[in-house]
Specification:
Elements: H1 2-7, H2 15-26, H3 46-56, E1 75-78, E2 85-88, E3 93-96, E4 104-107, E5 110-120, E6 125-130, E7 133-139, E8 141-142, E9 150-156, E10 165-167, E11 170-174, E12 188-189, H4 192-195, E13 202-209
């Protein structure tokens, strides 16, 4: 990761070392410094220290080095046709599309990069097809959330630059319970019992490159 940041001309702050030092100084367990597996707790004082350190390092901030392949890339967010619900939390709000009903269709053309979703602890899976051919079935259960928790996440649909799925006319999303274990990407999970609960997940949009 350090090498990757350096390649783009970026500097980083090692929060792991800061966290260990803060826990030692405050005689506090590391578990108490986390709200869940993905977020720091907001009432420990650690975030205050982190904000102070980031503020002190603002003069080191840099714009990432340009990537030649992406210079002329055009990106588009494509949304499904269908009934929507409004998702909102303390920092984000968007139209979301439930996956517990009929299939959803997205008119789209280009290279499919990712899907933005609302993942949850009580969630199922989504099967995504392009032009009638299945791409994959993905878990929408976020790891580390508390019961009834929901979070904005993304699903990546490629592994390398030469592995991009070309979409000619559109995508179809199906939320039916999978017959086998779905694809479980980083910071997701798959628990059959959670999949049997009323769904709290949803689809937002697909990201395509032209």
């Amino acid at each position: 990761m350090r090498e990757r940041f350096a390649a783009y001309g970026l500097r980083q702050i090692d929060t792991h070392e800061l966290l260990l030092r803060f826990a030692s100084e405050q005689q506090m367990s590391l578990e108490k410094l986390y709200l869940d597996d993905m977020h720091y707790a907001i009432d420990t004082g650690f975030l205050d220290d982190l904000v102070r350190i980031v503020t002190e390092r603002l003069d080191d901030a840099a714009v990432p080095c340009a990537v030649e392949r992406l210079q002329d890339a055009a990106l588009e967010l494509c949304v499904p046709d269908g009934a929507m619900e409004r998702f909102e939390n303390s920092v984000f709000q968007a139209d979301s599309y439930p996956l517990d009903g009929d299939e959803l269709s997205i008119a789209a053309q280009g290279a499919l990069l990712a899907s933005f979703v609302i993942a949850g602890n009580e969630a199922g899976a989504v099967t995504i097809s392009a032009d009638g051919y299945p791409i994959g079935t993905y878990s929408l259960q976020a790891a580390g959330l508390k019961p009834e928790g929901r979070i904005l996440k993304h699903i990546v649909h490629w592994k390398a630059a030469d592995d991009l799925r070309k979409v000619r006319s559109g995508l179809v999303l199906a939320g039916a319970q999978p017959h086998s274990r779905p694809i479980v990407q980083n910071m997701y999970k798959w628990n059959v019992h959670c999949a049997e609960e009323p769904r709290r997940d949803a689809y937002l949009c697909a990201l395509l490159e032209h």
